[in-house]
Amino acid sequence: MYGELILFSGNANPSLSKKICQRLGQPLAPAKVGRFSDGEIRVELESNVRGRDVFLIQSSCAPSNDNLMELLIMAEACKRSSAGRITAVMPYFGYARQDRKVAPRAPITAKLVASLIQAAGIERVLTMDLHAGQIQGFFDIPVDNLYAQPLLYQYIRDNWVTSDPSQTVIVSPDAGGVERARSYAKRLRCGLAIIDKRRSGPNEAEVMHIIGDVKDKVAIIVDDMVDTAGTLTRGGKAVADHGAKKVYAAATHPVLSGSAVGRLTESAFERVVVADTIPLQPPAVACQKIDQLSMASLFAEAVRAIHFNDSISRLFLPDIDE
Q1: Distance of alpha carbon 204 from its chain centroid, rounded?
Q2: Active site residues
Q3: How far are the Cα atoms of 63, 84, 290 from residue 66, in angstroms, in the given order?
Q4: Using N-to-C axis directions, what is the helix angle for 149-159 and 178-188, rounded to 10°?
Q5: What pLDDT, in 10s, does the model give residues 180-207?
């Protein structure tokens, strides 16, 4: 058993950090995380961490490099201040899409990030919806990969699924997301469809056809993230063109880079729900089609379980019979 629980936050997502602390009934420990005049990151912990169970809440979202360095430097400060244990709470794990060699001389950047995290003295990682589950194997320390599905599932069931579930269909945006979509469909007792597409280049996707019946049904596309929103919006258009009467989307990480918000605004979607693993920037906040659902309850329960050495497996998936 480690010492008293203490939580710090970087600048990546202070809103989520505060919500997690509120759920835990624990104050967010004060720390100065800023910049020197030359742009280098300056960290000063303003609470004693000696022997304590430290949790550093920091997504490595944009600006990815700055936020990752904040996390590493905060961990270094805790390590040199004799913290009992350091856990990184990373709601969004950046560089996760670079998880394998895609060309002869390409790096596996996700593995490099894992090595940097461990070198900084972090002894455990808590994250959500890793883009590739095998990234957990890049670490030699425990990695707890939570799923947003329990809360997204409840939101979808309460807001989008009709009284007759057979009139709703869950849609996977590609073959790689079939397992995720099947899980939603099974729990919601809905139909399942798959969008068959072929990529013509980076961040480009051409929708070919839809496997499954969406005509005159409520279609819900589920994915792990929304980046440029090109794939998602084309998928939404394809589903609408195939006769869906309403089209929705649910995704965990709202990366929303480039023209993503504009694409979603002009898309066929009625609404798009995302998690708060990444904070929404002003253009997205103003978008009437985007709703954000907080994951604070899941992370708070996971932090509490880790601190008290309890199982967190109960947080992974909702009861299929509920």
Answers
A1: 22
A2: 197
A3: 6, 26, 26
A4: 50
A5: 999 999 999 999 999 987 655 666 556 5
